[in-house]
Amino acid sequence: MATSSIFANVHITTPEAAERFVRALELSEKDPPIQPPADTIFETDHEEIMRKLRKKYGKAES
Q1: 23, 28, 37, 40, 50 from 45: Cα distances, Å
Q2: What is the DSSP-derived secondary structure letter of residue 31?
Q3: How far apart are CA 19 and CA 35, in angstroms?
Q4: What is the mean pLDDT of residues 32-36?
Q5: CA-based torsion, 44, 48, 51, 55: positive or negative
Q6: Which of 9, 25, 35, 43 falls 20 to 30 Å from 49 in CA-CA distance?
């Protein structure tokens, strides 16, 4: 979701509200990272990705 959509309904009208908002953003950065499932594989080799896509869609390798 675009940032502009997320903040469309945020109305900061006082310095205290601005401080609370900034504090909430800072706290949200400290959340533990989400761990992907153990069986998740991240392929980063572009040639391997292209090979798999060619195989999936039946394209001849070039």
Answers
A1: 39, 32, 20, 16, 9
A2: S
A3: 30
A4: 80
A5: negative
A6: 35
